[in-house]
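STRUCTURE:
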């Protein structure tokens, strides 16, 4: 083992990356010391097993961290040698085991799939990350972005709508994105819901009321929006829209009260 370590150090010093990779790959196939099964001593509920558990937690964590570092080194070597597919194979294999809780390895796998142009594999990886680490804003946007790149607008909209937002994250930019995507996906109900939240913001604009007016499901909803927009912005266009609805309904008292 000492000879191998010296050989790796020498290969690194000489920038002989293929030899470094060969030596590392050869070394990882050797079984770790003390890895033999413990037989009856490892049975659940064994007093000895329970007493040992607490003492072995830290060494086990350190061993996993060492495995992560070794994996990163091997992956970095593959990338330096231009062998992205070999790097991807290593990451894919590692993420099926106990290293699956390391989000940075998933991100590295996703980046490699994007580099290789495999958008569907990248989407599957992004979805696995979302399921494992939570549907936060950045995770949902990552999935939605890949779905959009693949031309699946309804799926992208569903991904954004299912996002677990923290307080304050449903800001104007986020809601506007959902509204625009809803329009492109042909989903007026989702677009209407987004604009309802947009006009509730202090930064609401008249055009957002006007768009919501166009999306109103019935005359009563359209009238309520026209009156609200007129009261908030003193917009003549919305005044005329409300008057037209009163006239269509034959509601002369309502029309007269609005003009009073």
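SEQUENCE:
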């Amino acid at each position: 083992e000492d000879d191998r370590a010296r050989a790796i150090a020498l290969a690194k010093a000489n920038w002989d990356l293929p030899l470094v990779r060969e030596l590392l790959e050869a070394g990882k196939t050797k079984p770790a010391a003390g890895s033999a099964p413990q037989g009856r001593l490892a049975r659940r509920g064994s007093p000895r097993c329970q007493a040992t558990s607490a003492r072995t937690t830290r060494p086990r964590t350190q061993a996993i961290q060492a495995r992560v570092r070794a994996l990163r080194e091997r992956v970095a070597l593959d990338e330096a040698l231009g062998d992205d597919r070999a790097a991807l194979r290593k990451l894919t294999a590692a993420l099926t085991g106990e290293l699956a809780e390391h989000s940075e390895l998933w991100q590295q796998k996703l980046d490699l799939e994007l580099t290789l142009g495999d958008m569907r594999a990248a989407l599957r990886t992004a979805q696995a990350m979302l399921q494992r680490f939570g549907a936060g804003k950045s995770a949902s946007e990552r999935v939605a972005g890949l779905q959009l790149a693949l031309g699946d607008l309804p799926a992208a909209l569903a991904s954004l709508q299912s996002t677990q937002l923290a307080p304050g994250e449903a800001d104007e930019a986020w809601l506007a994105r959902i509204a625009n995507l809803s329009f492109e996906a042909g989903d007026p109900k989702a677009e209407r819901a987004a604009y309802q939240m947009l006009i509730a913001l202090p930064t609401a604009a008249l055009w957002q009321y006007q768009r919501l007016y166009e999306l109103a499901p019935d005359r009563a909803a359209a009238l309520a929006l026209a009156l609200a927009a007129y009261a908030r912005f003193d917009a003549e266009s919305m005044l005329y829209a409300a008057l037209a609805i009163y006239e269509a309904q034959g509601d002369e008292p309502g029309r007269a009260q609005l003009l009073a």
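REMARK: The two ends are 94 Å apart (CA to CA).
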